[in-house]
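User: Can you help me understand a structure? I only have the sequence.
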Amino acid sequence: MLRFIIRRLLLTIPTIFGILLLTFLLQHFSPGDPVKLMLAGQFDITPEERLALANGLGLNDPVPVQFARYVMNALTLNFGNSFYYHRPAIQMIAERIPNSLQLSVTALLVAIAIGVPLGVISAYNRGTWIDHVIRIFSTAGHAIPSFWFGLIFVTVLGVELRWFPIGSMNAIGKEGDVLDRIWHLAGPVLTASLAGIALYPRYLRTEVLEIIRQDYVRTAQAKGLAERTVRWVHVLRNCLIPMVTLLGGILTIVLAGSFVIEQVFNWPGIGRLFFEAITNKDYPVIQADVLAGSMLLLLSYIIRDIAYAWVDPRIKVTA
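Assistant: Let's start by predicting it. Here is the structure, written out as tokens:
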């Protein structure tokens, strides 16, 4: 297992390098002048001072030199200070990562907790009104964009009805209140988990319908095992193998979608910080944010591969 993990970590190096290169080229050749944005409203700055500031930030260095500096910063986790907040970029990312993980992990757990039972229920009620309702819900949920659902949630349930808070992680003065945090998580978590809740029943229904026809399921039923045991142990356990493969796609949807959802719900995570950095062309924060997000996503895929061996002991994880 250890050799496998080390091998997978080594294989992520070319992927990370490609991500760094693509990110650097996109931010370097995108329109906009960081110095001009930094000095917005300051009319007493001379052209010489503007040039000195650009030179001090390394913006006038040759492109290969800037990229080499970017790679070295990534290796040492030293991206310098934010152009606008004047704080270490990596420190700002470290402060936001727990907030984003809190949202993403909770959304993933909610998607599994709701989507998996719906898939099993739909399969065992094939052709009934329950099956049709779940399939319609799954199709509709898959077609609804998460950002649109989030905007509707904020507008209707937050602004009009005032049932849920519409921003931040806690109410003022309730930073340590767990119930208040859960209340603030309700909207963004439901929005982020919508794709998974809609996707899992569609795939799991097909897997369950195929597995319940297998001989070992009939044997378990013939031995007199309780239907609940057959359904949730023998059938579901074997359905989880292809579902683990799907988990990688769900993780991508949740992590990528949370960037937009954090902006919609004003959630102080790395996604919201990333939007602000792009708007302001805050290169140090963009570079640190992309690296952090990429590492989290690659780590999630490694965890998915390791989960294969846990779900099915017949699968040998070797180097």
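Now, to help you interpret it: The chain has a mean pLDDT of 79. The longest helix spans residues 227-264. Let me know which part you'd like to focus on.
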